[in-house]
Amino acid sequence: MGFQHPIERITTSPITYCNLFGVNSGKVQTYSSPEEDKLIIGNDVWIGQNVTLKPGITISDGAVIAANAVVTKDVPPYAIVGGIPAKIIRYRFDKELVKKLLETKWWEYSYLDFDDLSFKDNADDFLSSLITQIEAGELTQFKARKITL
């Protein structure tokens, strides 16, 4: 969504935070978005084309954002959202499976070790096999690097 204007000031005009206009040049106060305006995008998230995301929201693990959506609020884990403003359309999986997926944090394991797992299986079967391999210590830990935009 870009720069957040200082809506708590009497005007959102740049004259209150930018010297470009020569107005009140001695009284201009620098304005920058607060630290909490950082956007957080979880693991295994799919964001469609032409999506607008409000700074400061969290797109939780496993979420899907439909193309052209305008997301102004946090998106829960494994929710599919769309529209203007974006609303929850449905969840990818039932609550119990979402809980298990979040607990296993499957994205913290190297997908190169997933040879014995079939992504074509339904999610419950895949997760059961994955948990067995995790408990047996057969999977290598993977740490993705964080990206700052």
Could you characterize what this model shows?
This protein is an alpha/beta fold. It has 3 domains: 1-32, no CATH class; 35-91, Hexapeptide repeat proteins (UDP N-Acetylglucosamine Acyltransferase, domain 1), CATH 2.160.10; 95-135, no CATH class. It has helices at 95-104, 123-135, and strands spanning 40-41, 46-47, 52-53, 58-59, 64-65, 70-71, 79-82, 87-91. The strands form 3 sheets. The chain has a 4-stranded mixed β-sheet with strand order 2-5-7-8, with no helix packed on it. β7 and β8 (87-91) form a beta hairpin. α1 (95-104) packs parallel to α2 (123-135).
Q: How would you summarize what this structure contains?
A:
The chain is 15% helix and 14% strand. By secondary structure, it is an alpha/beta fold.
